[in-house]
Structure formats: C-alpha cells, structure tokens
From TrEMBL:
Domain of life: Eukaryota
Keyword Cytoplasm: yes
Subcellular location: Cytoplasm, Cytoskeleton, Microtubule organizing center
GO biological process, one term: gamma-tubulin complex localization
Pfam families: MOZART1 (PF12554)
Species of the source: Coccomyxa viridis
Similarity field: Belongs to the MOZART1 family.
InterPro entries the UniProt entry points to: MZT1 (IPR022214)
Keywords: Cytoplasm, Cytoskeleton
Signal peptide: none
Protein name: Mitotic-spindle organizing protein 1
Keyword NAD set for record: no
GO cellular component, one term: spindle
Length: 76
C-alpha cells in the first residue's frame, strides 16, 4: 500500500471513529479499526454488532461483580 493509500485509510478511520464517538458507541479507535477490518473480510455487520453488544453487557456484569468484591473486601 502506497503512502497516499495509507493516508487515505487513516483519514477514513478517523472519520469513522468520529462517527462512532458521536453515536456514543464507546469504541476506541483501535476497536473501530478492528471492526472495519472484520467487515472488510466478510463478517456480517449485524452479527458483529450483536456480538459487540453482548460483550459489552458481559463486561459490565464482570465490572460490577469485581467492584462488589472489592467493596466487600474493604468492609472486612
């Protein structure tokens, strides 16, 4: 990939990440790039969106469990 193509890809990533930020997806620039690559490689966007939402829900549950365990340890 030439310098111009790399610059264009980076500019596109910046724009897509800005859109993701405006939509409050909570995705980092790196995560946005990974999602773009997955879609470019044939992953179904709707299925990918469902997986991302499920992972976010599971991560939130784990964070709450971890926080509760820390609070319990602090109180003993």
């Amino acid at each position: 990939m030439g310098d111009a193509a790399v610059a264009q890809a980076n500019a596109t990533l910046d724009i897509v990440h800005e859109i993701a930020t405006i939509l409050d997806t909570g995705l980092s620039k790196e995560e946005t790039a990974i999602i773009i690559a997955l879609i470019e490689n044939g992953v179904n966007p709707q299925a990918l969106a469902e997986v991302v939402k499920q992972l976010k829900r599971e991560a939130a549950v784990l964070r709450m469990q971890h926080q509760a365990a820390q609070e319990q340890d602090a109180s003993t």
